[in-house]
Amino acid sequence: MAMDPSVAARQSEEAAEAFFRAAPPLRDRDRLAASLADFLARHSAGGGGVVCVTSGGTTVPLEQRCVRYIDNFSSGQRGAASTEYFLKAGYAVIFIHRRGSKQPYCRFLPEDSFLDLFELGEDSEIQVPQSHSSVVKAAISNYRKAIDECLLLKLPFTTIFEYLQLLQMVATSMNCLGHRGMFYLAAAVSDFYVPWESMAKHKIESAGGPLNMQLNQVPKMLFILRKNWAPAAFCVSFKLETDPNILLQKAEMALKKYGMNVVVANELANYKDVVVMVTSNGGRTTVSRTSKAEDLEVQLTDLLVKMHSEHIAQPNS
Amino acid sequence: MAMDPSVAARQSEEAAEAFFRAAPPLRDRDRLAASLADFLARHSAGGGGVVCVTSGGTTVPLEQRCVRYIDNFSSGQRGAASTEYFLKAGYAVIFIHRRGSKQPYCRFLPEDSFLDLFELGEDSEIQVPQSHSSVVKAAISNYRKAIDECLLLKLPFTTIFEYLQLLQMVATSMNCLGHRGMFYLAAAVSDFYVPWESMAKHKIESAGGPLNMQLNQVPKMLFILRKNWAPAAFCVSFKLETDPNILLQKAEMALKKYGMNVVVANELANYKDVVVMVTSNGGRTTVSRTSKAEDLEVQLTDLLVKMHSEHIAQPNS
């Protein structure tokens, strides 16, 4: 028998509260809150859109003094690329990202050594090989513009505790924007975690044979975001699966269960080439990239910007 | 009752063989082996030292199509810094590193955006702010020199399976160098793993309540490295603990158990400031950095280079 929705809702809220109560406090919270308030004050007066992009995977520490942790696969490519296209479309972007994940305008970098991009000229001036010169220069120029014009606010996280506290802070602050706010939740968020108080204090000993672990479920914060933190915002979440047979079904379930406006369904094997947008009006839109030279995120953000405009124009549709 | 050493040795070897048999094959093995053979051929003729530096943490996949994995904390700072100082001391370096970890000559980079280092001048030329200019130029120049003179070979890994297969390949190849080879094993290697064949094929479902996992111990490959892969080399391993009360004792145990020449003991809380070198002649040498401006690795590599010279000069001591 299905649970009474109001009971399920209260249980979700209680689980979320318990999670936040037990989480280690966010470092630098005051400084982050101040920079966020400043950023939103600049953009709340105008009529433009503000999008919160989350990107990269969260970690789950297994020890309080963390040596070992569980991590979720995500390069941050999608979030970084989408941030660039949202900026191009005139949005202000709050980029909540995993430390060390891909960054806007830096995606073209060689994986392990940015030094491979540079040479010294005869007079010791820094040069970029001709083949990369225009890309690197455009990146420097676009990045400078976004930072100097206060259109990009970068907030880093590593653990699931940091991520969810940042998301809560940003979402409750963005609530004042009403329908002009968008959430583009591309981060790969852990489903399981070890509660802080039940965590080993020191590094787990390796001499004692096999290791047994029990992990708890992370409360479903999308539901709380939609219901309490920023109810009027336009919400886009992502569903990643490795098994295509269950993907769309799980995306539709997430759409209903958490009240998203759009769920973007993607498969690990081809997430750069094709996604399906499942929307709250029952629609399914397949977005594929037309050539390897173009990012899928060009079309994806374009469609979302249009849907968000409609959401702003017809708040009750 | 302690186990008969020869029985323990055979068990270790069998565990190692079983690990390699079941591991997913290393991608690009032939290309990597060829570049390694080429690198060693250049350096086997001369009389100089060759060091294999391992750096960064290994991951343990929890699913075959990997979305989730267990990771070990390690920025790769120690390995990257030490590589620079070994190169400066005239060594050829094989740098086995975690993808995305700190790289030699790039350690000074801002964490999330290398673009913060650059500006465009009036004629669109790339500029570095005066404050960073000399550091960036020295980095580009040193890196170019190491690559162009074939003194640095970079081999990347992500998983424990890749790491141990690379280490085996490098160690057995370096065996031809005899006492001129050094291993500087700074990577943070997982103690536990999920055997490939018992791993979930798809992403683990999150709807089924708490998650229970059982992880097996990773075979102690240091023992095999010393005994079979490269018995004449000079071997330095690292022991990281969060609890200072057990650190030195565990370092001494590792020294004896695996036949290392040196174990460098470090504590998570202050590993950048102080380490203790535990040596096979019973010595303990504390290495502390004298100022925040100097890397601890300057002294550490300097001491090791001297000890390695003695090892080369007096192979039976």
UniProtKB/TrEMBL annotation, chains A, B:
GO cellular component: cytoplasm; nucleus
Domain (DNA/pantothenate metabolism flavoprotein C-terminal) ranges: 50-146, 168-294
GO molecular function: phosphopantothenate--cysteine ligase activity
GO biological process, one term: coenzyme A biosynthetic process
Name this polypeptide is given: DNA/pantothenate metabolism flavoprotein C-terminal domain-containing protein
SUPFAM superfamilies with a match to the protein in the record: CoaB-like (SSF102645)
Family: Belongs to the PPC synthetase family.
Annotated organism of origin: Zea mays
Domain of life: Eukaryota
Cross-referenced InterPro entries: CoaB-like_sf, DNA/pantothenate-metab_flavo_C
Pfam families for this protein: DFP (PF04127)
